Here is the input.
Amino acid sequence: MRIGGLSNLIMAGVLRLTAMILVGFFVVNSVLVTAEPSSRHAISGHNETEKIDFIRRGWKLLEQKAQQRYEHVWPDMRFGWKIVVGTIIGFFGAAFGSVGGVGGGGIFVPMLALIIGFDPKSSTAISKCMITGAAVATVFYNIRQRHPTLDLPLIDYDLALLFQPMLVLGISIGVGFNVIFADWMITIFLIVLFFGMSTKSFFKGIETWKKETLKKKEEAARRLDLNGETTHIEIETKTQLEGTANGTQTENRESRKPKVSLIQNVRWKELSVLVAVWVIILALQIAKNYSTTCSLTYWLLNFSQIPVAVAVTSYEAVSLYKGRRRIASKGESSTHWQVHKLVIYSALGVLAGIVGGMLGLGGGFILGPLFLEIGIPPQVSSATATFAMTFSASMSVVEYYLLRRFPVPYALYLAGMGTIAAFAGQHVVGKVIKILGRASLIIFILSGMIFTSAISLGGVGIANMVKRIDRKEYMGFDDICSYRP
Here is the structure.
């Protein structure tokens, strides 16, 4: 209870601090813009010539920024130590990321930038290709699996219906923010958010581990009572046999479950709605990229995505509130939903998409911890987060391809590697969980991936920020209307 209260307090503080940072971004930029002319006015209120010169220099700077073209850095695809090291790091990142339900983008982006040598924006785009490959493989693996304790599919389709439309909408916003926001703003936002999420997940993992330990002790005591050996066997002996006994019990329980075909294990109605949302928003994105940037058509296509996503999520939220639908993977505790929580969850779905679009990450970095906080079992949380992330990541790949943000041969190779790694990670970690009887391992993997991503992405971001300060480069907002890929 104390751990849960502490993690809730940490999460609330992180969200408040994140909101303050976002407001601070605009305040700082406003101060930077107005500071110089204000100081001049204080020194000499009658010197109109200096004011005119300052305005002219400002307009000249804006014209130069509008004429600049972002230079991509795409290294040649040749076999060498960079490809080998990058492949090894990417393999383990995809394997563990698929298990945690986070995709692995926090490992991919620094690897692509620091080792293989891509520029930051291309690294973000190729990272999305790798996440998509790993996510597709993970969904293909999980779509045949069943809930660990209930007679349900492993993927919770109602949970996906609540979050996936807002996640896809957030991705569209995040891709635009990737162009608008300065690197230092994204870096600060990332560090604060990811450290908070990793801490939250870690405490959730400890809490789940303790529950599992208590359950294992109760099961061991029950078996000993049935055998009449409670007074003759030491507690230490019971704990030594826990792992093997629990693993055997889990396998026997699973073997007793009725086999369900793939067709019966998929909720086709819910899946068709999710695919329809993905197709509609993707079509709007493609049409937007063929229109003139910042034209009336451009903004109409952008804003047309909002009613599509909001309509589907609102229908699911209202159905959950009225009891017509329920998050079945939670069991009996899934019947009572409060309005303010449904609104907050929907907003966090948009936030997950924005973060994913800005940084080239999977929305699972936010969805995974959020699902655990709702009370979803770790296996279902990971599978459902990856399922929802597949739609958003694949849409980002299409958008980045239309923006010509990545070389196709590199993307195909790394996405294929991510696909193989995801299959390996799901198989190996699944076996370990069955043997040890510790689903909390998924939560610790999730927490570790988020923490590692905060260190790697934050470190790269700070290093780039220092370089830009030394070079006295422009570090404010960019104009999306003047952006040319």
Q: What stands out?
A: The longest helix spans residues 183-227. Residues 4-12, 25-48, 54-67, 244-255 have pLDDT under 50 and may be disordered. The chain has 17 helices and no strands.
